Amino acid sequence: MSLVEIKDLNKTYGSKQAVHRLSFGIREGSCVALLGPNGAGKTTTLQMLAGLLAPTSGSIRFNGLPAQADLRRYIGYLPQQGAYYNWMSGSEFMHYSGQLAGLSKKEAVQRTNDLLDRVGLQEARKRKIGGYSGGMKQRLGLAQALIHQPKLVILDEPVSALDPVGRREVLELLKEIRKEATILFSTHVLHDAEAVSDDVLMIRDGELVLSGTLRDIRNAHRQPVIYIEEDVPQALQTWAIEWERLAHVTELSYQDGIVKLVVEQPDEVKQQLLQQIAQHRIPIRRFELAQTTLEDLFLKVVSS
Amino acid sequence: MRTWMLMYRKELLEMARNYKWIWIPCVFVLLGVMQPLTSHLMPQIIDAAGGLPEGAVIEIPPPVPSVVLLETLNNFGLIGVLVIVLSSMSIVSGERNSGVAGMVLVRPVRFLSYITAKWAGAMTLVTCSLLLGSLSAWYYTELLIGDLSLLDTLYGSLLYLLWFAVILALVVFFSATLKGAGPAAFLSLALVLALSLLTGMLPAWMTWSPARLTAHAASLLTEGQLLDLFWLNILVGVTMIVVLLVSAAALFRNRPLVD
Ligand SMILES: Nc1ncnc2c1ncn2[C@@H]1O[C@H](COP(=O)(O)OP(=O)(O)OP(=O)(O)O)[C@@H](O)[C@H]1O
Ligand SMILES: [Mg+2]
Description:
heterodimer, A: 304 residues, alpha/beta, Rossmann fold, 6-stranded mixed sheet, 4-stranded antiparallel sheet, 30% strand, B: 259 residues, mainly alpha, elongated, binds adenosine-5'-triphosphate, binds magnesium ion
């Protein structure tokens, strides 16, 4: 059952269409990655979901709640660039956020302890936020988004500002959180999405280009590829042009001395290629049959 | 109401952390002490400045306590207002520009609560500062110049306080609707100045103006009675505060919280 339904969401800034006819649902209990390159409209989408930005048109409905209900109660939000009261200490900010979200003072203190522990800020909790590093602020932002045990946790690039270790820690944390809440997070790194999410939504120029579970997408878009690496510089340059015209080759690229062919009948194409290579003694170092990865698909989606 | 109190207390705490609770009362106390002191010391000051030419006999009338207090209140109305406006010009825009307003308003918080808690927080500081200033003025006037009714002092101060409340609502309004702190301060000061000047120059046209509150205070202190249309001015003042705060919240809500 879906927790949130988004229908025909639009946002225009002047003449710029930042989000265009976006429709999707978020299943209760799932972890969804909103994937897209810079400027794709991820932040804009999440801000509308969090209630910070009014959509130009379209609707956002929470299941079981009337259309005019104050959704903010059920949402925890981490903005891409979190801002805090620098004069407060970490735990003061957490107490304040928790109480604003409706917790009693006692509950807020308890949750603060628990969460600051989990994000690794227990030691720094009494220090002023003004003295926190960027990564520490990011963790604090994550903790404050979770303080009131929201139904839906919206995280805008939760790991982008972190070092590799912090990145892994936060991804682990997300895995834990997803037992308790539904998560929607944005990222422009496919790897992050693969690490924790069940579903992905890929957007480009404000439009949804691909969505579904990771597995379905991977299976549906898997294609055979052949990689051929040259042994002498430029050796494959002219051949690449030739091979592009072969039957069953849908796509060819030549970069850094490697020819990459996306093909339909791998066996047939392989035979032809190997024959030519042997016949003309083309100097190659590697010949490999493989499958396109999600990364390839993502890059294609993003750059086309 | 609970979230309102939370935000209100946060305002008070913030003003303590950035020392507003120290320096703004200090300014008012200083202004309060200065007028009685200079009035008292006027003869010595003139002497020290070279004195009067030989043979010149100029009577310096002894200062009148109520007039000294009135001059103090006048200073509050000039320098005090400047301090109030400049210290609170980014009261809303500051949080909005830094993005922290967004962190608060993703919580189930009413925009009107957010705005009014800010106004009330600043108002608390202004009230305490003004009362401290007036009490110091009263104390030093009693000590150095002559008898002054404490009740009249408080009454006159309260009239100024209402005028300050209008000014603060104006600052909150501009701070919530404009991006920059500078323009908000400038517009607030320009409007206050225009209202005060017009009220002084066109008394017949401006009988409604809340800027007359200061004139009521003057009349009360020197003549012992208020001017006409006192309640009209109170009513217009209070209405202005309500309208400004409510529309600040509405306009703030309709502008995206993020850029
Ligand atoms: N306040 C604004 N005014 C005008 N245009 C805007 C505004 N905010 C965003 N845009 C435009 O809308 C588009 C989507 O922006 P958005 O911030 O949602 O992208 P994003 O996917 O979050 O990118 P990034 O990965 O860089 O954070 C961009 O082209 C951006 O220029
Ligand atoms: Mg973004």
